[in-house]
Amino acid sequence: MAAAMATTMAVSVAPSSVALRSTVSSSSSSSSSSGAASFAPLRLGESSSSGFSSCALRSFGVQELSRPCYAYGLSARGGAKRDFLLTVRAVANPVEVNRGFEEMIAGTTRKYYMLGGKGGVGKTSLAASLAVKFANSGHPTLVVSTDPAHSLSDSFAQDLSGGTIMPVDGVDLPLYAMEINPEQAREEFRASVSKDGGTGVKDFMDSVGLGGWVGELSELKLGELLDTPPPGLDEAMAISKVVQFMQAPEYSKFTRIIFDTAPTGHTLRLLSLPDFLDASIGKILKLKKKIQSAASAIKSVFGQGDGRDKATDKLEALKERMIMVREIFRNKETTEFVIVTIPTVMAISESSRLKSSLEKEGVPVKRLIVNQVLPPSNADCKFCAVKRKDQKRAMDMVSGDVNLKSLEVIQSPLFDLEIRGVPALKFMGDLVWR
Ligand SMILES: Nc1ncnc2c1ncn2[C@@H]1O[C@H](COP(=O)(O)OP(=O)(O)OP(=O)(O)O)[C@@H](O)[C@H]1O
C-alpha cells in the first residue's frame, strides 16, 4: 500500500471491562513504524496525535487512583500524523500489582530471557513488550525469534526478516531485533560440512583405498543426521548461531537478549537436544577417528598426507556451541525461562508439564505470565460472566499446581485490539513488566 495507515488507539475503561479501543485514522506516506515516538502527557479530553492512557494503567494498579488521568500523546517524526481519541467511561478495580521487574533490569551483565509456551498464547507480544521495556530502561536489547513461523515483524509492524540484527525503527531506543530462519541455519551448516569435509575426507580415503568406508560410515551417517534431523535441531542451531554472534566484540553491547521461541513441543525437545547431539556427534566423531587411524596406518606405509578433515572440525565446533547453549540455558545467574500461558485448563496443564520438564533440565524458571485475563468487573454480559468464571477456574489451578505454585504469577489483561507496533508494545510492557 502506498499510503500507510496510522493506527491509533483510544482507551476506554468501563466498570465491566478494561478495554483498549482502536481507531484507525489518517494516512501518510510514512509507515506506522517509520517515525520516532515521543510521549507527552495530555489532559483528558484533549485531542492528541496518538497514545495510551495512564487511566488504563491506573486501572491495573500501576498508578494511585487519586492522581489525575492523563493520556500520552504520540508525535511521530518523519511526517506521520496520527489522530486519536481518548475516552474514559469509568475506572475499573485494580487487578493486582506485579513485582520483580527491578530484579530483571538490575546490573549490566548480559542476561538471557527465553519466552516459551503453547502456540498462540502471546509469546511474541510479550517478548517484544519485554524488549521495549528493557530498552526503555537503558539496556541495549536484542530480541530474537527462532520460531519458524515468525511473528516478530508483525508484532513490531516492520520487516525484520533479513536474518540479521536490525534496529527497530521509530524509536530512540537501543533496541534491535532479528528473525532467524532455523531451516536456513541447518542448510548453511549442512552445505559447509559437505563442501569442506565430505569431499576432503573422501578424496583422501579414496587415495588410500578406503573410499567405500567413508561413504558408508562417515558421510552417510552425517547425511542422515542432517537430512532427517531430530525435532528441535533447527531451533537449536538457530539459537547456537545467535550465541555465536554474541561472542563477537561488536555485540558485547547487548546486555539483554530475549528469545521468542517456538511453541512448547519444540522448545522442550530443544532442551534435550544438546545431550542428544553430544551423543550423536560423539559417535560420528568416533567413527571418523577410527577411519582416520586406519588411514594413518596405511599412510605410514604409503606416506600420504594428514587425514584430519574440516568436517570433523565443524562437527566439533557445533558440539561445542550446543554445549554452550545448554550451559546458557541452565545458568541461574544469567538466564530465565519465562513461561507464557492463558487462563484455560488446557494451557495451564501444558504449562505445568513445561515447568516440570524445564526443572528436569535444570533450566531456571521464576515467572509465569498468564495472558489474556479478563479484568474484573461488576456488570458482565452473560458470556463475559461465564468466561470469567472459566478463567478463574484455570487460575485456581495455578495456585494448586505442584509445578506452578512456586512461580511468580503475572497477569496480563486481554485487550480488545491487537498489540502491534512499539507504542502498543510499550503500553503492554508497562502493564506486565513491573
Ligand atoms: N493480551 C492480549 N490481548 C489481546 N490480544 C493479544 C494479547 N496477547 C496477544 N494477543 C494477540 O494474539 C495473537 C497471537 O499473539 P502472539 O503472536 O504474541 O502469540 P504467540 O504465542 O507468539 O504465537 P505463536 O505460537 O503462533 O508464535 C496476536 O494477534 C496478538 O496481537
Automatic annotation (TrEMBL):
User: Which GO molecular function annotations are given, in alphabetical order?
Assistant: ATP binding; ATP hydrolysis activity
Q: Which UniProt keywords apply?
A: ATP-binding, Hydrolase, Nucleotide-binding, Transit peptide
The ArsA/GET3 Anion-transporting ATPase-like domain is annotated at 111-430
Listed under catalytic activity are: ATP + H2O = ADP + phosphate + H(+)
> One biological process GO term for this chain?
tail-anchored membrane protein insertion into ER membrane
Please give an example of a GO cellular component term from this record: GET complex
Please state which protein family the record places this protein in. Answer: Belongs to the arsA ATPase family.
Q: What is this protein called?
A: ArsA/GET3 Anion-transporting ATPase-like domain-containing protein
Report the source organism: Ceratodon purpureus (Fire moss)
